[in-house]
Write a structure and sequence with these properties.
Layout lengths: L6 E2 L9 H5 L11 H17 L7 E7 L3 H10 L6 E6 L2 H13 L3 E5 L8 H10 L3 E7 L1 E2 L4 E2 L2 H10 L3 E5 L18 E5 L10 E7 H6 L12 H11 L8 H17 L1 H22 L14 E5 L8 H10 L2 E2 L1 E2 L7 E5 L6 H17 L12
Parallel strand pairs: 1-12, 3-4, 3-5, 5-8
Antiparallel strand pairs: 2-10, 6-7, 9-10, 11-14, 13-14
The structure holds pyridoxal-5'-phosphate.
The site of pyridoxal-5'-phosphate has 12 residues, from loops.
């Protein structure tokens, strides 16, 4: 069976290999069978291994849902009575975390920081010093909307210095940028199968410290479907997800993990960097400008300013590229029009070379001037 290959430059789901796609085609199976359960235990261990956790210290808890389910789970499950959360808010995904906390009616400090530069560690420390009731500090590792990389190691260290847990949303960095939960001071991180491991949508996981999950047994229960201890406990006792798992997605994830370890952490990160270098090269050739300076970028997302050319129309350029197998994605920034080019997925630099040819042809087609015009220097 031939499946058309699309190059996805959107921030997930990402382009997958045919072997991962095909891994979903399996005989129908009831997920309560031992044969299916036998997949889950090694999968949980592999997910911990990706961030270099030891299985006795860390565990992976799987959920059926998109990545946001993990944000919901950790925020609502890991705050003890009498404690409040501290959210470092410098992008669309940390803003989402503040909304989750609002929906649960939980107390939190919304520490807003500029969206385009590294947050101020002094202010974070000051906030921790002045509030001795902070249960956890929450920060997005890679703000996918802008491409900003946040300093988890430093902020994790500050959280621990003041006796708080450190929770980080690594959905768009896990299995791409090397992470070591011990060195990076991470108590909880999370991801989703359609991003770093290059699997399918519908499976997400929280990876975190067993001792804290065990302790959270006695924390207030605020959600039924999204309680971390409940799901963990069910896994530990039965080896299964509490409720129906995304069966085919789990088969795909199993294959994706095999391919992840075959490629290797360092090779994979080098490939992502190679893709981003090709993205940057094409931008420079056409005169496209980015929203963030290079030194604060993750290396996985390039956020490009919309040209000021009167003929620029994102939708038209998008459609032109899409029809030719390349998907680009609008930005998530309120202040200025932007689109994103992402280095996720089973692609390599020659795909980016192919993309720029098509993009340049789109500029010609719609009579958008090259080099690209911007009003401000
Ligand atoms: C993709 C992503 C998520 C999850 O988004 P969903 O739409 O729920 O899959 C969460 N956090 C970050 C940083 C992401 O990039």
């Amino acid at each position: 069976m031939q499946v058309k290959r699309n190059v996805l430059l959107n921030p997930g789901p990402s382009t997958t290999t045919d072997t991962v796609k095909m891994a979903q085609i399996v005989p129908d199976i009831c997920p309560r069978e031992e044969e299916f359960q036998a997949i889950m235990a090694p999968m949980r261990e592999d997910l911990v291994k990706i961030v270099h956790g030891k299985n006795e210290d860390y565990t992976a808890v799987l959920f059926c849902g998109s990545g946001t389910i993990c944000i919901d789970v950790v925020l609502n499950s890991l705050l003890d009575e009498g404690k409040k959360a501290l959210v470092i808010n410098n992008g669309a995904y940390s803003a989402r975390a503040t909304e989750v906390l609002e929906y649960y009616g939980l107390p939190f400090i919304n520490l807003e920081q500029p969206w385009n530069t590294t947050p101020d560690l002094g202010i974070i420390e000051e906030t921790l010093k002045n509030n001795d009731d902070i249960g956890y500090v929450y920060m997005t590792h890679h703000e996918t909307g802008s491409g900003l990389l946040n300093p988890i190691r430093e902020v994790g260290a500050l959280a621990h210095k003041y006796g708080a847990f450190f929770l980080t949303d690594t959905t768009s960095s896990y299995a791409m940028i090397p992470i070591n939960v011990y060195e990076d001071n991470v108590d909880f991180c999370m991801a989703s199968a359609q991003k770093g491991i290059m699997g399918m949508t519908g499976l997400s996981y929280v990876i975190g410290r067993r001792d804290i999950i065990e302790a959270s047994k006695n924390y207030p229960k605020r959600s039924y479907y999204c309680n971390l201890f409940m799901q963990y406990d069910f896994f530990e006792r039965t080896g299964q997800m509490h409720f129906t798992p995304p069966v085919q997605t789990i088969y795909a994830a199993k294959q994706a993990l095999i391919e992840y370890f075959e490629e290797g952490e360092q090779n994979k990160w080098e490939r992502h960097q190679r893709i981003m270098a090709a993205i940057h090269k094409g931008e420079e050739k056409l005169g496209l400008k980015e929203m963030l300076s290079r030194d604060v970028q993750s290396g996985l997302v390039s956020c490009v300013k919309y040209p000021d050319d009167p003929n620029w129309d994102f939708e038209k350029v998008h459609d032109y590229c899409y029809e030719r197998g390349y998907t680009i994605y609008p930005g998530k920034l309120a202040n200025q029009g932007s689109f994103r080019l992402c280095a996720l997925g089973a692609i390599d630099e020659q795909d980016i070379v192919g993309f720029w040819e098509v993009f340049e042809a789109a500029l010609h087609e719609y009579e958008i001037k090259i080099p690209i015009e911007y009003k401000e220097a």
